[in-house]
Design brief:
Helix content: under 10%
Structural class: mainly beta
CATH class: Mainly Beta
Strand content: 35-45%
Number of domains: 1
Distance between the termini: 41 Å
Number of helices: 1
Order of helices and strands: HEEEEEEEEEEEEEE
Number of strands: 14
CATH architecture: Sandwich
């Protein structure tokens, strides 16, 4: 009930915080990711064993930021996404020479660790809200509904939102929280049910949604800062990575014949 109320109230007042036209992407101009559809059952196990993954478009996170302006690590991250009638499936493949995490509690700060993030708005526009999912390499989940620069340029996170029936699997190649050796990396596979995204219409082939995919990379256990990599560029890294008027689009594809 609380999720329905939040969505109803939020969309009634989205117009309060209009974005400046020179910074807002116009519908049709956003970068586009084509989401392959699968009819094959997907086992969320942190591996791309299913043949269907070969049809998923692979992209890299090529935009890097660090909030304290120190030299940053630019480790490679690959991303793929698929869908079926029930779920979106995400797959992150990250090179990482130092596997690091501290957070173990839900709805806390996994974003300060080695972490995958996914922001999605189930319409093809840059409204000032989105669903957010942030998960570190020990499966600490922070899920929320966010209103970006909602009142007096303050961000509002609705932590009471909980995405039911998320499926998460992670593999790591190395030793966690040991800075004396060099690790190789990690993978994360995530299934997000469409039912977890409120009362929005389910997608069909040709539907377009706005989204951003992010990787947080912290290589020192005692460093509260980290390098951030994004799929789509953001115009002002001093703010945050949540800027919905810089999201790209996903377009849901039909099953390949």
């Amino acid at each position: 009930m609380i999720n329905k109320l939040i969505l109803t109230v939020g969309f009634a007042v989205l117009s309060i915080n209009a974005f400046s036209q020179e910074k807002k992407l116009v519908i049709g101009e956003q970068p586009l990711y084509k989401v392959a559809k699968t009819t094959e059952p997907i086992t969320v196990d942190g591996k791309m064993d299913e043949a269907a993954w070969a049809n998923a478009q692979e992209v890299s996170f090529d935009y890097f930021y660090r909030s304290d302006n120190k030299p940053m690590d630019k480790q490679k991250t690959k991303f793929r996404m698929m869908w079926d009638n029930a779920n979106m499936y995400l797959f992150y493949t990250a090179q990482d020479t130092s596997l690091t995490f501290r957070e173990t509690q839900p709805d806390a700060r996994p974003y300060l660790d080695d972490c995958a993030e996914f922001f999605v708005l189930p319409v093809p526009d840059s409204l000032n809200m989105h669903f957010g999912f942030e998960i570190n390499i020990q499966k600490a989940v922070y899920d929320y509904i966010m209103f970006w620069q909602y009142v007096n340029k303050q961000n509002i996170f609705i932590k009471q939102y909980n995405a039911d029936n998320l499926k998460i699997a992670i593999t790591t190649d190395g030793t966690i929280n040991d800075q004396k050796d060099k690790d190789k990396g990690w993978t994360m596979e995530l299934a997000i049910p469409f039912s977890a995204l409120g009362n929005f219409q389910r997608p069909r082939a040709g539907s377009k949604w706005a989204f951003q995919a992010v990787r947080q990379d912290r290589n020192l256990v005692d460093d509260r800062f980290r390098s951030t990599a994004t799929l789509f560029p953001i115009y002002d890294a001093r703010l945050d990575v949540h800027q919905p008027n810089r999201f790209g689009l996903m377009e849901f594809q039909d099953v390949k014949k």
